[in-house]
Amino acid sequence: MNLVVQSPEPLAAAHVKPLVALARGGQAHSIDLCALRIAEADPAQRPDIESYCATHALDYAYVPSGRALRDFGLVAMDMDSTLITIECIDEIADFCGLKAEVSAITEASMRGEIKDFNESLTARVALLKGLDAQALEQVFAERLRLSPGAETMLAAAKAAGLRTLLVSGGFTFFTERLKAQLGLDFAHANTLEIVDGKLTGKVVGEIVNASVKARTVRETCAKLGITTSQAIVMGDGSNDLEMMAEAGLSVAFRAKPVVRAAASVAFNHVGLDGLLRLF
């Protein structure tokens, strides 16, 4: 296996010798100023590498040697707190003066403490009843920001021939705009009901929960004529676990502990473009 170690800042030369020793690997090669690759690393040394990297705010990943980005056919991403830096529903709730209340439910749901995502989403959306739909426009224009490295990662994935899927327990108002803005191939999310320019506090149609996310990844792979092992799936919350389990490579991005523990790779410090250094 190759061990890839990354830093959000230029990687200090002082890290090279201890990392090679801990990895029990071969030669270390610089990928760029912020990352290095150690060949023939022993995955049994993961606990020591984990401890060192956690201490020094580094990210690491074990990757089979010779694996290339073009070996995959799809990159599927969660939206809130993954492709973008915010939780849209929390920001919408801010316009009702209920951000703290809604954020608390969102956090508990993403940590896996609320097992029924449908119930969690329904409860949060109900609190938005009567809000002017113009608030959605304001959230998109004023508060929504892409996560670091998002555009670089997407450009490289597209150049390598991968298709792109945004699959979210959030709302189509945002996913469709991001799809158009970023040139994504597919998007699937929940639809907020709006009547006479105001939110009704209801979601229209099937709720995009964990199992629907996983099904969407499977269906998109089938549409593309690839297996789910050729999908890269990125997420941060417990409702991403099922679709991440479908993937050939799963990436936990600034994720909750339960998600980091289950993922192939965790990026706690670097941006989404950290994906590119793995190959």
TrEMBL record:
It catalyses: O-phospho-D-serine + H2O = D-serine + phosphate; O-phospho-L-serine + H2O = L-serine + phosphate. Keywords: Amino-acid biosynthesis, Hydrolase, Magnesium, Metal-binding, Serine biosynthesis. CDD domains: HAD_PSP. SUPFAM superfamilies: HAD-like. Pfam families: DUF4072, HAD. Its cofactor is Mg(2+). Pathway: Amino-acid biosynthesis; L-serine biosynthesis; L-serine from 3-phospho-D-glycerate: step 3/3. GO terms for cellular component: cytoplasm. It comes from the Bacteria. Residues 3-49 form the DUF4072 domain. Its EC number is 3.1.3.3. InterPro entries: DUF4072, HAD-like_SerB, HAD-like_sf, HAD_sf, PSP. One of its GO terms (biological process) is L-serine biosynthetic process. The active site is at 78 (nucleophile), 80 (proton donor). The keyword DNA repair does not apply. GO terms for molecular function: L-phosphoserine phosphatase activity; magnesium ion binding. Belongs to the HAD-like hydrolase superfamily. SerB family. This is Phosphoserine phosphatase. The gene is serB.
